[in-house]
Amino acid sequence: MILWLKGVVFSVTTVDLKRKPADLQNLAPGTHPPFITFNSEVKTDVNKIEEFLEEVLCPPKYLKLSPKHPESNTAGMDIFAKFSAYIKNSRPEANEALEEGSPENPAETR
């Protein structure tokens, strides 16, 4: 998605994970997609891949996709984590504790 948003021409290789080619097994043993190779170096962590692409595919040739203020990304991840926990909760008695972190909760603004 990052490559597409930046307008980079790239190729995608689909692989049957049950019948991985030998070169793929040797490339990133014990890992599952996604991963990326660049100059014979393999990146397997999604966050590291994102950071790497933003660093290498930088302006002026490519758009900058990272937030202007890094703390906005942290805030977004925090909100997503709390919302995700809330919607996955199967115990109604835990809802109140999960709602305490909600920005709409007046107790938090005091």
UniProtKB/TrEMBL annotation:
Q: What is its main location?
A: cytoplasm
Location in the cell reads: Cytoplasm; Endomembrane system; Membrane; Nucleus
Keywords of this entry: Chloride, Chloride channel, Cytoplasm, Ion channel, Ion transport, Membrane, Nucleus, Oxidoreductase, Phosphoprotein, Transmembrane, Transmembrane helix, Transport, Voltage-gated channel
Bilayer-crossing regions? none
Please state every residue range assigned to the domain named CLIC N-terminal.
Answer: 1-60
For molecular function, the Gene Ontology terms on record are: chloride channel activity; oxidoreductase activity
Q: Which GO terms describe its cellular component?
A: chloride channel complex; cytoplasm; nucleus
**Alphabetized Pfam families for the sequence:** CLIC-like_N (PF22441)
Q: How does it sit in the membrane?
A: Single-pass membrane protein
- Cited InterPro entries: CLIC, CLIC_N, Thioredoxin-like_sf
The chemistry this enzyme catalyses reads: chloride(in) = chloride(out)
Claim: Cell inner membrane is one of the keywords in the record: no
Q: What family is this?
A: Belongs to the chloride channel CLIC family.
Q: What is this protein called?
A: Macaca fascicularis brain cDNA clone: QmoA-10544, similar to human chloride intracellular channel 4 (CLIC4), mRNA, RefSeq: NM_013943.1
